[in-house]
Specification:
2 domains; Metalloenz_LuxS/M16; Cytochrome Bc1 Complex, Chain A, domain 1; Insulinase family protein; disordered N terminus; MPP/UQCRC_Complex; globular; five-stranded mixed beta sheet; seven-stranded mixed beta sheet; about 475 residues; alpha+beta
């Protein structure tokens, strides 16, 4: 309570002199980064037409177990002749060696660069010829993949995925080409204020914990990653015991079971993961200033969040929407953009991982108005922490969440992504049916308690841009 009062009492209408905190250089930590291997315009159009309502999906979700024991959440839908599969392996970038961040990211970029008896060029030609979309990405806790194809191309699509997972080449020429691309991105990030702010925020929030490392590595770590490092990662992480699968599309259960066994059956049965400790994000308030000579200052702000398993998660999710997650209707958007014109946009989200959670917001503004912008954000954060939302705001937010679920799950691809996320979050298979009731159950007292918990201590803030003196000049 003392910290909450001190934070709110310390806010005034004057500019903050403490913005001249020391700064350090850093780059973006992408919590979810995907690289598309191949996707034709025609396939993209078909994917957009694959519609299924959440109520239909809830009634159709099957817990499928293949003859070989591969489990999947599955919705059979013949609306259009295509199949969307999302899958993940436990591990993610948190399994990178401490001194070699970026291994999981490189693996994701290289799995489709030649495998089995196909070199990189031939592999991609096969994808392009059949309009197959295959992609991989590394998040903090999972190594994620997507596969989308027309129904008639399913055998070839699943076989290409099998080869990518079980016999990647990691040829020297391909490794160095992809490494060069990653390094170019890292160099660009050193002058990108949004990337700098994101990395610094996570560094402050998580310190030396794996969540504080950037997924795509560092300029001094990526050159040291060897093929042996990547093969070791594949052997430890891409295993059946950490596999979760969601499939939506025009395929019958028996056929899908055979495809899953063919694709994943040869993977090692057990992984060898390093234990990752739980961690609470650093306590606010804290502020860091990163000097960068750019016209627009970027502000990233946040603090400890609420884990998905927390019984008060939905209350936090709803009240966060009211403060900063509701687009044009959020408090921050109204105060920062509409009333004062300080920034083009401002938003905030809850991020939850397996071992921690944060809320994180972002905005950009003219360098000489950064102080005013931050003042407004801090005042709104303090106000909702002390007073909570109004009943009207709560009712409108709950109505939005119940209505928007239809749009969030309106294609087979979106539904497959949601079903995979529900599995990762350890939610029940009928969660789609239960979600609106969970939203409805959030009371005004719940929302007020969640607001105080999230924002009562203040913010972790990172400002990237010109110094106040330079901005004034």
């Amino acid at each position: 309570m003392a910290r909450e009062e001190a934070f709110c009492d310390g806010i005034s209408g004057q500019g903050h002199h403490h913005r001249q905190a020391r700064g350090e250089a850093f780059v973006t930590h992408p919590f979810l980064r995907a690289r598309r291997a191949a996707l034709s315009v025609a396939t993209g159009a078909v994917l957009a037409l694959a519609t299924i309502s959440p109520s239909q999906a809830a009634a159709k979700i099957q817990h499928l177990i293949s003859p070989g024991g591969i489990e999947a959440w599955f919705v059979q839908d013949a609306t259009v002749p295509l199949i969307a599969m999302e899958y993940s392996f436990a591990g993610g970038s948190a399994q990178d060696l401490h001194d070699k961040p970026g291994v999981a990211n490189l693996v994701g970029d290289l799995l489709d660069e030649g495998s089995g008896d196909l070199d990189s060029k031939t592999f991609h030609e096969r994808l392009d010829r059949r309009a197959i979309e295959l992609r991989f990405s590394a998040g903090p806790d999972t190594f994620h993949g997507s596969l989308r194809m027309l129904r008639d191309n399913k055998d070839e699509a699943f076989d290409l995925l099998r080869m990518a997972l079980t016999s990647p080449h990691f040829d020297t020429a391909d490794v160095e080409r992809i490494r060069s691309q990653v390094m170019s991105g890292l160099r660009r990030d050193t002058t990108n204020p949004t990337s700098l702010a994101s990395r610094k925020f996570l560094e402050i929030a998580f310190g030396d914990h794996p969540y504080g490392r950037q997924t795509n590595g560092k300029l001094d770590s990526v050159p040291t990653i060897t093929v042996a490092d990547m093969k070791d990662y594949v052997g430890r992480v891409l295993t059946k015991d950490g596999l979760k699968v969601a499939v939506v599309g025009d395929v019958d259960p028996a056929t899908l079971g055979k495809l899953l066994d063919h694709t994943f059956g040869a993977l090692p049965a057990k992984g060898n993961l390093v234990a990752i400790p739980d961690i609470d994000a650093a306590k606010p308030p804290q502020l860091a200033f990163v000097p960068l000579d750019v016209p627009q200052t970027v502000i990233t702000f946040g603090g400890p969040g609420v884990k998905r398993s927390d019984p008060n998660f939905m209350a936090a999710y709803v009240v966060n929407h009211i403060l900063g997650g509701g687009g044009l209707s959020s408090r921050l958007y109204r105060e920062v953009r509409e009333k004062r014109g300080l920034a083009y946009s401002v938003s905030e989200s809850l991020l939850w991982m397996e071992h921690s959670a944060v809320f994180i917001g972002n905005t950009g503004t003219r360098a000489d108005r950064a102080g005013d912008t931050m003042d407004v954000i801090e005042k709104e954060v303090c106000r909702i922490a002390e007073e909570g939302p109004t009943q009207k705001e709560l009712d409108e937010a709950k109505s939005y969440f119940k209505g928007s679920q239809m749009l969030a799950l309106d294609t087979s691809s979106k539904l497959a992504q949601a079903l995979l996320q529900y599995q990762q979050d350890k939610l029940p298979i009928d969660y789609i049916e239960k979600r609106n009731a969970i939203v409805d159950a959030v009371t005004l007292d719940d929302a007020k308690a969640a607001a105080k918990r999230l924002w009562g201590q203040g913010l972790l803030t990172v400002i990237v841009g010109r110094s106040p003196r330079a901005a004034a000049e």
